[in-house]
methylated-DNA--[protein]-cysteine S-methyltransferase
Amino acid sequence: MCDYNYYQTPASFDDLVMVSDGVFLTGLYFTCDPHLDKQAITLSKRDLEIFKMTRAWLDAYFLHHECGQCPPIKIEHATAFQQEVYEILKAIPYGETVTYKDIAKRIAIKRGMTSMSAQAVGQAVGSNPIAIMIGCHRVIGSNGKLNGYRGGLKNKKALLNHEKS
């Protein structure tokens, strides 16, 4: 059974739902995320230590303070390729963006391949269950446009604007 709790964001963002296995943060979703099981989040709402740590990290993020190390995260059911993409996402600096194509090139070089599908990278980015902390909002299209975001394009744009202010 998973535990859930809420985080109230500043006004320009949708609120967040934190999910935990009791020890690790296993999900951080905007309330508009279509993958969020809205019925389940009413079943087990407890205030765990991991949620307190997550709130402290998010408070620092939204106040433009140094966030420090993320709370302990565990991503379940991710493929090796998705994990590889998530590691790249974690390394994107605050306030910066990269393209899906950039990530695909990095993985291709690392694997000794001539190319890698940017669409495959996009699917992996879109499966990220930890919003904000794993910076999937920092990935944009090669044309500079904001492409799909599980947490909604409104939140993606707000996060990028927040990081540039």
Notes: Residues 29 and 154 are 14 Å apart (CA to CA). The two ends are 39 Å apart (CA to CA).
